[in-house]
Fold this sequence. Notes:
alpha/beta, four-stranded parallel sheet, four-stranded mixed sheet
Amino acid sequence: MANFFTADLHFGHEAIIGFCDRPFENITKMNKVLIDNWNSRIRNDDHVYIVGDLYYGGRDGAGVDEAIKIVKELNGILHLVAGNHDFPYLKNMEYHYLFADVDQIRYLKHGEDSIFLCHYPMAEWSGYFRGSWHIYGHIHNAKNTAYDYMRNQERALNAGVDICDFMPVTFDELKMYNERSKQSQMV
């Protein structure tokens, strides 16, 4: 059993391909790669912390049947820290109960590390001055002020698939991907 982290998959969201410059021809191929990448790494007893925006099929929860179908294909024990696009789908109880738990903020102990999970990046978080980590999503790989600010926070980690090779990653891998993201911006 291992813990994995991911955010901003946006299954079902065709426009995200262009918004984030994702390397997929269409939504069908993107969804397939995301599912295949997920299931190639995650065993059924692994815990996956999804830090928001798992699915987006349009306004007001459009596509909830497709969202249910996709979530049922994903391996692991799923914990959702809801993002802005998750709330309409969570109104559907069949979808809601596919997750072990659903929170807006989550605290997690990972070995010796304390982790604060929230979809939205924060300048300071609970435990900030005591060495806790903040894992967030929401800003994808955007090259904007928030992205630049957060990427320079020592213990803040972007779990977005756009910087994590489109797959859930371990805590150590998450640190490595974020460091790689920082280095690529310095060039």
